[in-house]
User: Fold these one by one.
Assistant:
Number 1:
Amino acid sequence: MTLKERYRLTFEYFEAAMPYADTELKYVEPFSLLVAVILSAQCTDKRVNMITPALLGRFPDARAMAMAEPGDIFPYIRSCTYPNNKAKNLSGMARMLVEEFGGKVPSGLADLQRLPGVGRKTANVVASVLYREPVIAVDTHVFRVANRIGLVRNAKTPLSVEKQLSANVPPEKMRMAHHWLILHGRYICKARTPLCGQCGLRNFCQYYASLRKTIRK
């Protein structure tokens, strides 16, 4: 099977099985999404969605959060991973938004990555979800699923996966591809116990093929 055929079959399956896919982070406007994505680093979306209502109720926009010290933010996010660092990043991010961007979340990837707590993955998520940019964020789910299916070859880093996916996914499908791969990894192609029996991709998945070979031996 060629790489082109593998992509075609993968997207045909997702388009039929998951015609609509979007982020599971709850947000109402750009600032709340940016806050949620920063909090989601190495933390589940479910946990983040439990944290953000109270946090954003107290600091509803960049100007309100910019006036807060990390110690003011910490009690609201103490149940997520790395709360001390994230409190510092949220405070610094909000201040930069106010001081340099008029309190608005910028759309450019370079500007987004200048914000404290915003790396390449976070910037890509915001650009994709908010601004419909044809970019793909590679988290642990996307990295795992893309490698297992065989959409990428010898991809050892998230950046390598991102570059290969970007080269092969049509721009109009990029945003959906990001969510398809995340959700598939979250609910089917799990890290430790993948549900291969429930997977519609198993007929051409390289990981499943390797499992079958191992069992035969």
Number 2:
Amino acid sequence: MHNTETAAFMAFLMAFAGVIIFICLLLYIYSAICLQIIAKKTGQHPAWMAWIPVANLFLMCKIGKLDYKWLLLLLVSFVPLIGTFFGPICALFWTAFAWYKIAIARGKEGWIGAITIIPVIGFFTMGYLAFSR
């Protein structure tokens, strides 16, 4: 490849990475807003914890009335070899269960919260749990 072709390719990659980062930032902001609204509607404080990574997991436990010990399930991912196989399964289970309990805390059917783990649908269920009565 010539230098101009390499430069053009690198510019394309940087633009693509910028778009991906922007989309991820928008999705994070949306999910934090939803979790903050859910925390306020369920009377759980401090709701601003929705904006802080890891702290938002504690807020989810608080909203769903889960013992914080459930968060230990997420630490399986850091165990060598075992975490490779069981880490993603534990994370999916924890997320589904936490959103199940959050939906119940909002007075909705639990399955509505559990389907939050399904890509794309999860953002709609978060919005439904946050913005519905």
Number 3:
Amino acid sequence: MNTASQAPIRQPAEWEPHSAVWSAWPSHADLWLEDLEPARAQVAALFRAIADFNGKPRGEALKILACGDEAVDSAKAKLRGTGAEIISATFGDIWFRDTAPIFVQSGKALQAACFQFNGWGGKYVLEGDDKVAAFVADRAGVQATVNSWVLEGGSIDVDGAGTCLTTRQCLLNANRNPNLTQADIEARLRSGLGIEKLIWLGDGLANDHTDGHVDNIARFIAPGVVMCMEPSGTDDPNRDALNAIIADLKAATDLNGRKLEIVTVPSPGRVEDEEGEIIPASSMNFYIGNTTVVVPLYGSATDDAAVEAISKAFPGRRTMGLPAGHVITGGGSFHCITQQQPLV
């Protein structure tokens, strides 16, 4: 890794102030097929909620990449009146939580920690995705640090004070960094992101092509406080995994030795696509903006209860539930397509 400063590194928590959010516009018809325009409508609603725009962004600035002239024109038209900056760029798809840099604080300066990206273990290798991190760092005018190992932003979740949630299913998967041990990964997270304590969970959601990203199963909502899902219905396909996550979190402590406070919300339960296949629908894939928390909805009977529970965790912000059924056909949801730039 090329370090630009000797000052201690810290990855701010998502609830800390942002100067902007980086994301992308669904741009490739060959990937989205009949879901392209419906997904664009759902993504536009997400961006409008995050910007909270009323003459100026009360929320945070939108930095939206679009690939190709048609996508640029579409984004400009659909996001008119939000103050969004539409940036023409080459990328594979919109999952910027994993392809964009992770912004960290070093002293009073902001840095962009850029990691290698291999298409979630070689499953979806799309042209341009491995160049997104460097492009965003340069466009943001932030010093980049280059980390020579594979890490996706959705595979970790931090409290801003040195403690991190992750899963063995993803970070220890041989399809990412086969030559790195658990100790190696912990050391690299410490040097690259300032993470001092990892809480290792087991498996993620069924049919999640990310191999168990933690932002689908458990999130810090305050220092020492973790939100996760409890099973819904007798046919919840993730019943065993969710119960195991709750048990592991109850047994865990943070960097300061505190037992974690666990807040549970109902999972969406069994959600299927048009072919009857289980999709990795998650209430945990919400985005914490400056003024607004946006929760993905999947038409589940538990949608309203999940939004209500999440709203109680963020009393200083408005909480909005927005449909994400077309976005998730691409493999992820709202948190997966956003990457915040902290205000330092």
